[in-house]
Structure formats: structure tokens, C-alpha cells
């Protein structure tokens, strides 16, 4: 069984889902059309196989729930457009590059509006790849690694600065529990045989190798009081997205964890009909 084909517009693929979940993959594209000039400054590294991993996650969602989340996937190489930066940094002044960037973000905005209108709460996850030595999935909540080193009492004071600021309005768990407890996304993923942080086992990285979240996670977070929270998900390469088999394994564990996470904190049973 394969995931439903995504529609394509301006080098961006989009799937309108029925679940209160939005996924995006801004850095997995490889297309380098000659009529769109290369960016001159910034970061150009591809997050290899994150587009493929996103498709596997979509397929796994359908297998486990008979429904899809919303999904937005960038097909252009990061050398052409960086869909996880503000527009002045993300593109040249080329009209086609700007149109692609706007299409990507308009799909996210539209998805967020649909989730908010239909459910009144939901989650947005921006999918990336990293190659840090600790080999853990990193879930970013806009809190720096040094913040994660603080005591639980001090971390609680940072809830208002987090991308899941309003999640505490829907969950009966503490902010620290939402961030790194047994029912956090990391905690649930760890129970499925993968490794993730921040968690009880790894609340922070000793070497500072941790991405807390960037433009998309901030822009589509609940910092502004939105009912849709955001998380940046950074998947290691080896063992997680390097082979088709590992991507399938990762997708299965991630989706089952996210289904459980939505049930615990949002009171959504994603396995019932939507």
C-alpha cells in the first residue's frame, strides 16, 4: 500500500489531510531547475531522505488510522529555496523562487487554519535530518540546550517561550512532562525502541549538539496563542533514514508514538473515523 499522491504546485507537494496534524519537509528536495538561480548565501545542505521519510510517515498514518495528516513537501533543492528561513534569506529576488517559497508557506497556513477550524487544537511538525554524534531524534520546542540543563522547577518557567505554549491548556500534564517525561513525544518514541531527546534518559546533550527549532517551528508555534503547537523533529541519518527499511521502521514507531501522544494530551483517538 502506498500513500495517496500529493498534488504538486510550484515545486511543492501538498496533501490535504483529515487529522489534526500537519507535517512539513522543507529541506529534502533535490530538484535544481536551471530557470531558478542559486542562492548566494546561507546554508545549502540537503536533509537527505527526509522527503522519503515523510512519505513513509504518511503511508504509516493511513495504515494505522485509515486517515492522513496534512503534508507539505518541498521538491526544490535548498540551493534554490530554503523553506525554513524568512523570505529575504530563503530566496534570491527571482520571482519563481519567491512563488515556490510562498506556495510552501501558504499550504502550511491553510492547513493550520483547517485544523484550528475543525478541531480547535492540533500539532505541526517540521521534519529535518541531522548527523549529530549522539544519534538521537531531536524534538525542538524553541528552548536552547542550555535551558534543558536547568532544574525542572526552572524549566517550568520557560513554558511561555516554548513552541508548545498552549498545549498545557489541553493536557493535564505539567510542562516538564510534556517536554521530556514518559508521555512526552521523546518518552513515547523511546518506548518503541528508538532514541529521542529531550527525555528522562537524555534531557540535554552534553556537547551542545541539539537543534531547538528554527523559522518554521517559531512561525507556526503557539507562541501567539494559537491552538496549534509546533515541534521540530530532527532525525539522525544512520539507522533512521539511511535505508528504505530503516525509514519504514522509523515511520512506524514515530506514527504510533504520535497517535498515543495525541490521545494522551489532546484527547483525540486518531484510530476512530474522522
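-> sequence recovered:
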Amino acid at each position: 500500500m502506498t500513500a495517496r499522491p500529493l498534488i504538486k504546485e510550484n515545486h511543492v507537494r501538498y496533501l490535504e489531510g483529515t487529522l489534526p496534524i500537519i507535517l512539513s519537509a522543507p529541506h529534502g528536495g533535490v530538484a535544481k531547475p536551471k530557470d531558478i538561480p542559486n542562492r548566494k548565501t546561507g546554508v545549502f545542505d540537503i536533509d537527505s531522505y527526509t522527503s522519503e521519510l515523510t512519505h513513509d510517515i504518511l503511508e504509516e498514518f493511513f495504515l494505522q488510522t485509515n486517515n492522513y495528516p496534512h503534508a507539505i513537501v518541498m521538491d526544490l533543492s535548498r540551493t534554490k529555496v530554503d523553506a525554513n528561513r524568512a523570505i529575504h534569506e530563503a530566496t534570491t529576488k527571482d520571482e519563481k523562487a519567491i512563488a515556490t517559497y510562498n506556495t510552501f508557506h501558504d499550504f502550511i497556513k491553510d492547513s493550520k487554519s483547517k485544523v484550528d477550524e475543525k478541531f480547535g487544537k492540533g500539532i505541526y511538525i517540521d521534519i529535518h535530518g541531522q548527523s549529530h554524534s549522539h544519534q538521537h531524534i531531536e524534538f525542538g520546542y524553541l528552548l536552547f540546550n542550555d535551558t534543558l540543563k536547568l532544574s525542572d522547577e526552572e524549566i517550568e518557567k520557560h513554558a511561555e517561550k516554548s513552541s508548545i505554549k498552549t498545549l498545557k491548556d489541553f493536557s493535564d500534564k505539567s510542562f516538564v512532562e510534556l517536554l521530556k517525561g514518559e508521555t512526552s513525544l521523546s518518552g513515547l518514541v523511546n518506548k518503541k525502541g528508538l532514541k529521542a531527546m529531550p527525555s528522562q534518559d537524555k534531557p540535554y546533550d552534553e556537547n551542545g549538539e541539539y537543534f531547538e527549532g528554527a523559522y518554521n517551528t517559531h512561525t507556526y508555534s503557539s507562541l501567539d496563542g494559537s491552538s496549534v503547537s509546533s515541534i521540530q523533529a530532527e532525525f539522525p541519518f544512520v539507522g533512521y533514514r539511511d535505508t528504505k527499511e530503516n525509514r519504514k521502521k522509523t515511520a512506524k514507531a514515530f506514527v504510533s508514538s504520535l497517535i498515543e501522544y495525541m490521545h494522551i494530551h489532546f484527547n483525540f483517538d486518531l484510530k476512530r473515523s474522522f
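Strands lie at 7-9, 12-15, 21-25, 70-74, 122-130, 137-140, 196-197, 228-236.
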